[in-house]
Amino acid sequence: MIEYIKGELTELTPANAVIECNGVGYMAGISLNTYSAIQGKKLCKLYIYEAIREDAYVLYGFADKQERELFLLLISVSGIGGNTARMILSALSPAELCNVISSENVNMLKTVKGIGLKTAQRVIVDLKDKIKTGGAAAGMAGGMPANTEVNDEAVAALSMLGFAANASQKVVTAILQEQPSIPVEQVIKLALKRL
Q1: CA distance 189 to 138
Q2: CA–CA gap between residue 102 and residue 29 (Å, rounded)
Q3: Contact, 122 vs 78, CB < 8 A?
Q4: Nearest to 125 by CA among 97, 101, 109, 92
Q5: Rounded to two decimals, what is the model's pTM?
Q6: Is the four-CA dihedral 80, 81, 85, 87 of positive or negative sign?
Q7: What pLDDT tens digit does each residue of the chain (195 aa) get?
Q8: Disulfide-capable partner of 92 in 64, 76, 83, 97 (CB 3.0 to 4.6 Å)?
């Protein structure tokens, strides 16, 4: 079992990353969250999930263990495979996904491409208790910004400037994770550079 791959990031697209480790290039399917996290880095570390089937041997890579844990929970739901789980994790950040499942927000889950009403309901029914009691929710606590007032103000300001709320929330959350005590003006300035 491969736990993680650490090495030089030789190729990167929004769907795949190739990491060279001791002369071997490993291609892993990634989510947009992972893409954002490793973009611009020369060296990186991806936590791996190996999907071994009769017809394929596929690696999925994640920037952190919490995202991989959510991926594993998603693929445990009947009807959700690796690519669908990756699509969900591309549309929603791990913290957003935990909130959607715990608040039973079927409509938000249905906005993900390829997810219909029945699948969204199945995800919520199957994972609601696991998210609340499992390590995913505890791990996601670190994924939410420490200062919610700064977070809300920054997202509101970016929305007024015409940026999409989902994209703004992802960028603001990432900035507040890196620098928790930063003032709202700095958050907005940094977010404008990343959006």
Answers
A1: 30
A2: 27
A3: yes
A4: 101
A5: 0.68
A6: negative
A7: 899 999 999 999 999 999 999 999 999 999 999 999 999 999 999 999 999 989 989 999 999 999 999 999 999 999 899 999 999 999 888 888 988 898 888 988 988 888 999 999 999 999 988 876 444 444 444 444 346 778 888 888 888 788 887 888 888 888 888 888 888 888 888 888 888
A8: 97
